[in-house]
Amino acid sequence: MNLLTKFRREVTLRSQIFKSDAILTGGYIPLRILQFAGFFPFSITPQFCQSDRFHLTYHRPLYKSPSSLWLLVVILIPLVPMVISLFYVSHHYDIAVQEFSHGGVNTFLIVTISWEICSILCPAVARLHLLKNQKHFIRFWVGFRRLIDTLQISDDLHVANYLKNQERKFILHFLVQLCIAILDNATYLRYALCFEGALDGSSVLATVQELTFSFNGILTCFALHGLIYFVSSYELCLDQMIKSVGEKGKVGVRNILKFYAILDDHVAEFVQLFSIGLNFYVVYSLGNLLYVMYFLEITIHIEQYFLSFVNIGKLVVFTAYFYWLASCSSAVEEKSGRFCKMVRYAWSSNGWGGSGKVRRKNNQLDDNVVMCLGLEPIVIKNSVLDFNVRLLVSMIAVIATYLVIIFQFQAEDTA
Questions:
Q1: Contacts of 49 (CB under 8 A, 6+ apart)
Q2: Scanning 222, 257, 360, 363, which has its CA 20 to 30 A from the CA of 324?
């Protein structure tokens, strides 16, 4: 009987390890895409002898790390042709400005130049911040693996469906974004040839500048993949915790309170590590939404409906991508709040002492009671913003206000 019990425990333990490995392996695709986008200066080495886990490493000095070198190259790619173009092909855009600035040249230049600065500066700061904090991220990753390893998974089907759903979303977004980028660049090349009539040295240089600028924009569109993976994993943890409390009641609460505290600490470390990158990405998102909506209005006005279609596609995909992360953050806040309520309800039945009195040990509150009283929802926020769906709604409202102001200013712009 003892041997049978021991065997069952060993099988359960191996099954639990396999499940946690599956969750960790689910990060392989998003982190690879993030590495391709120049936002992940780490080597990703698959560990096939360990249930397909993968290992993250970073190298010093930087020239020994291809991922770090690629990150720096991505930062420099749009800068070099832009600096050259300022001195040699400053007249190249005159025709394009006249073509698209139907409501005023000054308004057009302000919007486009502001967006160019924003689209280069914000991703560069986010990349350099992560490059600077490589040691911090490795510590964070080790803590994340420990967190997943200690997660008590009770629903295999839910975990399997979660992993398949996330993998499909990551791949689908990657493919759709590439298709839109190809259409966007092909349309640009077509209009560049129409404006110039023939390609000379200045037009080739300007075209290279625009293509590198567009390439940087494409890569930036994948910047949230890693964050989505981590936040959605936190959501999965909360799903399993809620299920455990519902099935085991007070016994489940006793065993899971410490895990909730570990999860809370890990989310706080997540916010600390990615706070600056998130802030700059929000600024980038505001600039991107403003630029795309502004050009959508222009292309409709000049009856370039294919360009309008491309801009609508860019707007929808980018908004859906941002909403993906924001909705995961909101779900973490909502489900953690639900977990806190379930814990208090489970303890209030007889956990306060059976007759409404708080249980004490040696004239002190029981540790579990103290943890229950101190439970709060997990909120992904920093000193600047709360990252949830309400943030996206606020951003859209701000952009709509800016567009109204821009169009009013454009009406007065006679340049």
A1: none
A2: 257
Give CA–CA dist 5/7, Å, rounded. 5
**291: Cβ–Cβ under 8 A, 6 or more apart, which residues?**
111, 112, 115
Q: Which amino acid is at 88?
A: Y
Report the candidate in 276, 266, 384, 405 with the shortest Cα–Cα distance to residue 332. 266
- Radius of gyration (Cα) for the chain, nearest Å? 26
Rounded to whole angstroms, the Cα distance separating 165 from 235 reads: 14
What is the CB neighbour count within 10 angstroms for residue 40? Answer: 27
Helix axes 389-412, 305-350, angle to 10 degrees: 150
Tell which residue, 321, 102, 96, has the closest CA to residue 223: 321
Tokens standing for 71?
């990150």
Q: Residue 97 in 3-state DSSP?
A: helix
This prediction has a pTM of: 0.83
- Phi/psi at 249 (5° precision): 65, -135
- Each of the 415 residues of the chain gets a pLDDT tens digit; together they read 454 344 344 334 344 444 556 777 788 888 888 989 989 888 887 664 444 467 787 777 777 788 889 999 999 888 877 776 666 655 555 656 666 656 567 777 788 888 888 988 999 999 999 989 988 998 999 899 888 888 766 656 777 788 888 888 888 998 998 888 888 878 777 766 665 555 566 667 767 777 788 888 888 888 889 899 999 999 999 988 888 887 766 666 777 888 888 999 999 999 999 999 899 999 999 988 888 888 888 888 877 788 888 888 888 899 999 999 999 999 999 999 998 888 877 766 555 444 444 455 444 445 555 566 567 889 998 877 888 888 888 888 888 888 888 777 766 665 5
- CA dist list (Å): 384 to 20, 141, 165, 254, 387: 34, 25, 32, 35, 10
